[in-house]
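HOLO CASE FILE
Compound: pyridoxal-5'-phosphate
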Amino acid sequence: MNTRDIEKIYREFVLPTYSQASLCLVKGKGSRVWDIHGKEYLDFFPGWAVSGLGHCHPEVIQAIRHQAGKILHIPNNFLNLKQAELAKEISEASFPARVFFCNSGAEATEAAIKFARKYGSESGRYEIITMKQSFHGRTLAAITATGQEKVQKGFEPLPQGFRYAEFNDLDSVKRELTDKTIAVFLEPIQGEGGINVATEEFMAGLRRLTDEKDLLLMLDEVQTGMGRTGKMFGYQHYSIEPDVMTLAKSLGGGVPIGALVVNRKVKKEVLTPGTHAATYGGNPLVAAASLAVFRAIRKGKLLSHTVEMGEYLESRLEDLKKRFPVIRKVKGVGLMRALELEKPGAPYVEGARAKGLLINCTQNQILRIMPAMTVTKQQINKATRILKKVFSEAEGKS
Ligand SMILES: Cc1ncc(COP(=O)(O)O)c(C=O)c1O
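Model generated. Tokens follow.
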């Protein structure tokens, strides 16, 4: 089989919901991946932020193998040892909390929305304020929470009860408040929206506002969670703690898992038996993998490594910016970085891929560069050398 054969099967048998590159990856190790023809790439957007530890981290692989030999799945009406351990682990890494497990980021968003609605049901409040340029997933409620019309178009009528505010603008949030508001839901750093980092002032203002009005402050940490920013969770860069937090992507180190993490200070018992469920949610296999992710971060001291590598990457990207006027801005925190360009980014992504580097473009002009937390200085040097060549060649052409 070659790439063309696989593309042919796709054309016939797979619904075309993704625009895809002609690239079939079959093997990965850390920040390196190989395609079906044996060509090696440096992966600086591993698994769309799922493979936060890099591909096939040995600790995760070992945990999956071990668990697969014991039991893969048990239903959630029985006790699940690995799930219990994982919930405790998440709580210890964040705030005193209780956790609901599901299978993806969008499902975690759904769970957060249902949680907020149920929380407000007695007082007749159901509206959730989300941010423009946000991204929360692709289910019907998640696209409605997402403050971007492009993901909603054609799927109307959308569920009611969402209002959109400007990111980093507390007055804009206040303008969207009504007597029906129950929650504010946002990413601490907007990922798909272009690596927009929330300010301390905004986050602290939101915490004050939500406390004053008895609203839930809910954070989507699907992309920012699990160490990517150099702290275990994005909110830990701020002076605040959320009432509710959603997780997915890196949480499973490559296997599908999502979580709704509810702060114990939310006193009301909201999601009671029969109100929400996910058949696979937090099954022994994925929970064992996720526990291994936590272990690997601890053992490898990957948070401090992420801070160090993140600063190094930033300095190398700043060097590129000095050299190439097409780069407007270097953005981000830790290993969640981006280059904002003056021009569409797709040709740069393709140019990098042709030279063996995988990166991503979002919002048309923003190159997302989010290597694994295990990335090395040498790999960052190699990636920035490739980017330099790509920018030089593009400059030569224009
Ligand atoms: C911040 C954020 N929330 C939610 C999601 C949805 O996650 P999933 O694709 O696992 O449903 C994403 C996916 O990119 C995301 O970046």
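CASE NOTES: The radius of gyration is 21 Å. The CA atoms of residues 26 and 38 lie 9 Å apart.
CLOSED: yes
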